[in-house]
Write a structure and sequence with these properties.
Beta-Lactamase; 2 domains; eight-stranded mixed sheet; seven-stranded antiparallel sheet; 15 strands; 51% helix
Length: 478
């Protein structure tokens, strides 16, 4: 089902529900009020009839009288006059009841109706289901709802009959036809149905028009969502004129711009660190990554040995291709061990382990990565030898210590890097490493000495350092 059709049906359904529910409430409220007013009139008739009945005489009639004696006839004639006077109000029957020795049982005494359906003289009647009849001993009362039986619709009211002292000795009941209320109910229902039809006749074209206005912007947003979900971050949805949809569309486009920028940053950063590291960094607030902070890291430097003489014999384009191929090998290894590429240093690179994402074994990761780099270079040189090309050899230096890591630069351009004596020492160690060697500092050696075989190189003087440093050549793992 199309969106527009669904929206129109929902709108029509809402209109139908509102009209139907409102009509139900109005009908019920109005009928309750009409029933109450009619019941009050009947209760007034019952009270008027009760005034002219002598409670004591009625008591004697109920106790020892007979149907047809003088008291019976007097009361019945009185009730007949009341019935005749109120016939226009639908009054059908009037009757009196007297108490028995059982609390919930009364007995009929005098009744106007003498048809076959009428109660017989002194016939007992259980009033338990009739709460209003029970209340009549305390004052006039009327049924709250219309009663339906095989003879039609009825409403009854009751009033007390008192003795000379004002004490209630019995009650009088009035039954009246409630056909007029039932007919009024049917008439109201018909009017509500007509109103419902009229409402639908108006709602259908309006809902179709409104749904058409809404459908365009919604479909545009759905299409935009699908495009973005498929990775098309260049897609932008049209901005409609409806204010609410305009704000929604502009917010959506702004969100896509943010996603595009985030994706660009993620893609760019993936060139410097592994994808797993990128995912962790993306989840860290910006200020946590950029602000300068002290970190304990392991710094790794590489450099090609005797590359300048080789480059002088090659075309610039070939030099660039060779460097890219060389760096691709090293960076693949670096990312395998969750290292971070800090920068390229001509024909070498600087990498860090422990920044921006720290591991408990960063020195070990750095050493393993360095050995793997040398192994990849050996394999690379085998291929070069098959092509008759000279080998490439790199020296690698590693140092562990504290650095200050963060964004360095200006507001217009900033570089994320690390500075400090640890970095400088790592660079100096790399200068001393021979081609194919992995040379580490004493600080790094202390972290990995139980898992490597290394050859001490003895105290070595480094440029810029007053005291010589103990260095170690890593032979292998294990």
């Amino acid at each position: 089902m199309k969106f527009r059709t669904s929206l129109a049906l929902i709108f029509c359904g809402v209109v139908t529900t509102i009209i139907g529910f409102s009509g139900l409430l109005v009908t019920r409220s109005y009928l309750d009020r009409v029933t109450l007013e009619f019941g009050n009139k009947l209760a007034s008739i019952a009270a008027t009839a009760a005034v002219a009945i002598d409670g004591e005489q009625h008591g004697r009639l109920a106790a020892s009288g007979t149907k047809g004696d003088e008291i019976y006839n007097q009361i019945r004639m009185h009730l007949l006059r009341i019935k005749k006077a109120t016939a226009g109000q639908g009054v059908y029957d009037l009757y009196t009841l007297a108490r028995t020795d059982k609390p919930n049982l009364l007995k009929f005494v005098v009744e106007v109706d003498e048809s076959d359906t009428a109660a017989s003289f002194l016939e007992e009647f259980d009033i338990s289901p009739y709460s209003e009849m029970q209340k009549a001993f305390n004052g006039p009362a009327a049924d709250k709802k219309v009663t339906k039986d095989k003879f039609g619709y009825w409403l009854s009211a009751y009033a007390p009959i008192s003795d000379r002292d004002g004490q209630t000795v019995t009650i009088i009941g009035v039954d009246a036809s409630a056909e007029s209320i039932h007919q009024l109910r049917n008439k109201i229902i018909i009017n509500v149905l007509l109103l419902l039809v009229a409402g639908l006749l108006v709602a259908v074209p309006i809902s179709w028009l409104v749904s058409g206005i809404i459908e365009g912007p919604v479909r545009g947003l759905v299409q935009a969502t699908q495009e973005v979900g498929q990775g098309n971050l260049d897609y932008r949805t049209a901005v409609p004129t409806i204010r609410e949809f305009k704000v929604l569309a502009e917010s959506f486009n702004h969100m896509v711009e943010g996603l595009k920028e985030r994706n660009f940053i993620k893609s760019t950063f993936s060139r410097y660190v592994s994808r797993e590291v990128v995912e962790k960094i993306i989840g860290v607030p910006e200020y946590e990554v950029i602000k300068g902070e002290r970190r304990n890291v392991t710094v790794l430097f590489t450099d090609l040995r005797q590359f300048t003489p080789l480059a002088e014999t090659m075309r610039a384009e070939d030099v660039l291709d060779l460097l890219n191929e060389h760096f691709s090998l090293l960076i693949d290894v670096l990312f395998e061990y969750d290292g971070t590429l800090d920068k390229f240093t001509g024909d070498g690179l600087m990498a860090m382990f422990g920044n921006p994402v720290m591991h408990t074994n960063d020195p070990e990761r750095a050493v393993r990565a360095a050995l793997d780099m040398q192994e990849r270079m050996r394999q690379f040189n085998v291929l070069r030898a098959e092509q008759g090309l000279p080998p490439l050899r790199i020296g690698i230096g590693i140092n562990t210590g504290t650095v200050v890591a963060g964004g360095i630069g200006s507001n217009k351009r900033m570089e994320y890097t690390a500075i400090g004596d640890t970095v400088n020492v790592a660079a100096r160690i790399q200068d001393l490493a021979e081609g194919g060697q992995v040379l580490i500092s004493q600080a790094t050696y202390e972290h990995v000495k139980d898992m490597i075989h290394a050859t001490p190189k003895g105290p070595v003087a480094l440029k810029g350092k007053k005291e010589p440093l103990n260095l170690f050549v890593v032979d292998r793992i294990g």
